[in-house]
Description:
The protein is α/β, with parallel strands linked by helices. The protein has one domain: Rossmann fold, CATH 3.40.50. 27% of the residues lie in helices and 17% in strands. It has helices at 12-34, 45-56, 86-93, 119-133, 193-196, 212-219, and strands at 4-9, 37-41, 68-72, 74-76, 147-151, 175-178, 188-191, 201-206, 238-244. It has a 6-stranded parallel β-sheet with strand order 1-9-8-5-2-3, sandwiched between helices. Strands 4-7-6 form a 3-stranded antiparallel β-sheet. The mean pLDDT is 96. 6-phosphogluconic acid (6PG) binds at residues 42-47, 74, 76, 86, 151-153, 157-159, 183. Pfam families: Glucosamine_iso.
Amino acid sequence: MSAPSVVVHPDTGLLAKAAAARVVTRLVDAQAATGSASVVLTGGGIGIAVLSELAQAPARDAVDWSAVDVWWGDERFLPTGDPERNETQAREALLDQVGVDPARVHAMPASDGPDGAVPEPGAERYAEALRAASRPEDHADVPAFDVCLLGIGPDTHVASLFPEQPALYEEERTVVAVHGAPKPPPTRVSLTFPAIRAAKEVWVLASGEGKAEAVRLALSPEAGEVQVPAAGARGRSRTLFLLDRAAAAKLPEGISGQGLL
Ligand SMILES: O=C(O)[C@H](O)[C@@H](O)[C@H](O)[C@H](O)COP(=O)(O)O
C-alpha cells in the first residue's frame, strides 16, 4: 500500500477541474500502455462535480471512452433511474455524453433489479462480475483498477464503509450489502477494503471546511481504519488526497500539501 500524497487546490471549482484533468491523463496513459483503462466512480457532491468537469474538459476526447471499464465504489440501493442513485448522477454528468460501451459500464444493483428488494444477491452478483473481469496479473478477485475515486464523509466514511460497521472487517468479500448507513439512504452496496486497495491508484476527493477534520484523521499516522475508514483507503502504487483549501485546513503536522501556500 502506498503512503498518501496531498495536493491542495484554491477552491472547490478548481479542485473539480484539476481532478478531471488528472482523470483524463490517467486514463490516456493507461490506454497507451494496455489499450484499455478502468475507473471506479464515487457518489457525492465533489465526485459528481468532477464528472461534470470531465464532460466539459477540452481533452476529454483524448480518452477512448469505448475502451474504459466503469465500476462504482458504492451505490445507494434505490430503484433504477432514481435521481439519488450514484449511477443516475454519473450517467447525467458524464456517461451519457461520451461514447462509453454500455457493456463496460458496470452499475451496482438497484432495488427493482432482478435480484429483488434486498441488496445481498446483487452484491454477490457484482462481486462475480469483478472476479470475471480480473486477470491473473491482477493478483486479486477484482481488476487492478487504474484509478478509484472516493469521496469522504465528515465521519470519515469512504464509499459506503461507515465507521465501526461490520463491512470494515471484511477480508474475503469484495462487495457487501450495507444496512443502517448513517447517511441516507440506509441501504447501500459497497466495495470493501480488499477491492479498493486492489486499485493501482486511489484518489480521495474532499472539498469544504466540513471535511477538514475527517481529512486530518484520515492522514493521521495513528488512525485505525475501523474508526476512520478513510485511513484504510490506499492504492497499490499511489494514494492521493485531492483537496481544496478549506478541506486542507487541518492537515496533521508533518503532512504538507503541494499547492498549500
Ligand atoms: O453514495 C455516497 O454518498 C458516497 O459515495 C459517499 O461515500 C460520498 O462520496 C461521501 O459521503 C461524500 O459525499 P459529499 O461529497 O456529498 O459530501
